[in-house]
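Project outcomes to date are best conveyed with an example. Our students and postdoctoral researchers have been running inverse folding experiments weekly, and each run begins with a structure described purely in tokens. The record below, which covers 163 residues, was selected by the lab manager from last quarter's runs and is presented without edits.
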């Protein structure tokens, strides 16, 4: 995977010596980059499912997004810090979206407010099939905000930080 896709200065790994747990199925690509290999909505649907839209050979994370007037599927790169996405992309930066599971169409649950200036919320995806709250990915629901976090065993494993 080429390094040019990642702004490594904005990816924060608080404990670079700590490897992801077996439960989360997170794969370490190197000392900074991690790959999400499975992610579930609160109803247990695996969102790493699209085998047609690959990112460096790996399936992305499928989400249904809507601004209230238009909706569509967006597939995010499974590599934390890689901002590539495929699918619907015609939202203006700063647009607050409803982020849902593309299978059951239920809105993803919120984790906490985002620190962005647009009033976004971090929505969560579970990293384990049993929906363990200790293993989650958090993504901002504002289009163009790249703030995100990965928690493993209730500890911050990786964060994309914008100062």
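After processing, the design step wrote out the following sequence:
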């Amino acid at each position: 995977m080429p390094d040019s896709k990642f702004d490594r200065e904005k990816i924060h790994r608080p404990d670079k010596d700590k490897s992801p747990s077996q439960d989360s199925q997170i794969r370490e690509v190197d000392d900074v980059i991690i790959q999400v290999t499975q992610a579930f909505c609160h109803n247990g649907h695996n969102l790493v499912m699209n085998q047609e839209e690959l990112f460096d050979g790996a399936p992305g994370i499928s989400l249904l997004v809507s601004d209230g007037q238009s909706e569509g599927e967006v597939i995010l790169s499974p590599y934390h810090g890689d901002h590539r996405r495929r699918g619907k992309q015609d939202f203006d930066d700063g647009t607050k979206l409803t982020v849902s599971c593309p299978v059951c169409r239920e809105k993803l649950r919120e984790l906490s407010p985002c620190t962005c200036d647009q009033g976004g919320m971090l929505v969560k995806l579970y990293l384990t099939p049993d929906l363990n709250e200790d293993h989650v990915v958090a993504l901002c629901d504002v289009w163009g905000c790249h703030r995100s976090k990965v928690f493993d065993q209730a500890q911050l494993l990786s964060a994309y930080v914008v100062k």
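Residues 29-160 form one domain. The radius of gyration is 15 Å. The training component of this project remains on track.
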